[in-house]
Amino acid sequence: MQVNKKKPTLFGRLVALLVYGYAAGVLFVWAALLFAVDRHWIGTLIGYGPRWIWAGPLPIVVLAVLLSRRWRLLLPTIAAAFVVIAVVMDFSFGLHRQDEGQPVRIVTQNLGGIMPIDDPRFVTWLQGTRADVVVITECWRNDQPKGTPDPAFHFAMDYTMCLLSKYPIVKVEGRPRKDVWERGGSGEIGVFEVQGPQGSFWILSLQLETVREGLEAILVNKLGGIPELEAKNEVRRWESQLATEWAKDHAKSPFLAVGDFNMPIESGFYKEYWSRYDDAWSRCGRGFGWTKRTRKTGARIDHVLFDDAWGCAGAEILPDIGSDHLGLAVDLRLSPPK
Question: What is the pTM of this model?
Answer without folding.
Answer: 0.93
